[in-house]
Specification:
Structural class: alpha+beta
Number of strands: 8
Oligomer: single chain
Shape: globular
Strand content: 35-45%
Number of helices: 3
Largest sheet: 8 strands, antiparallel, barrel
Radius of gyration: 16 Å
Order of helices and strands: HEEEEEEEEHH
Helix content: 10-25%
Strand order of the largest sheet: 1-2-3-4-5-6-7-8
Distance between the termini: 21 Å
Amino acid sequence: MRYFYIVLGFLCGVLGASTLEGVYETQSFLYMKSSYVEFFKYKGKYYAYGIANVDGSQARRDVYNKNPALRGRSDKGVVFLYDLTCVDKDTYKNGRAYNFYDGRTYYVQVRQKKNGDLKFLPSFDRRGFFGKTFIWKKLNNAYLTEHGIVKPDFSRVLETLKEIQRED
């Protein structure tokens, strides 16, 4: 079974099906603002970090973090989604996402639509029964340039991987 997942991951990359990398505009919900996030692949898994709020407002502090040492950090330029793996040409599972608005970590599944947009499903359970699906719109880098949105230094983003508190 392990070899099946290795071959599947290889095929996702070789066949060009793995197009998750890129910038997206998230969907706002209740008290959570819409923001720009970027997915990237690192050591065979997918991660995401926040770039900026769509409305141009300032980044928030991580005041709900269980770790008091991290409560002063920004919610932008920090990896909040981690360990997402390609399980099919347009399906990604087994990820976790930290929510800066409540300090909780959720299970994540992502399905990429043909137009590049994402069906993003954070949930309380691994199977996604207790969650809500959001649509995240895929953007290109030209959009960011046109709107004056600047990505953070990527080497600093990678440093935040050390701050992830994996809960399994």
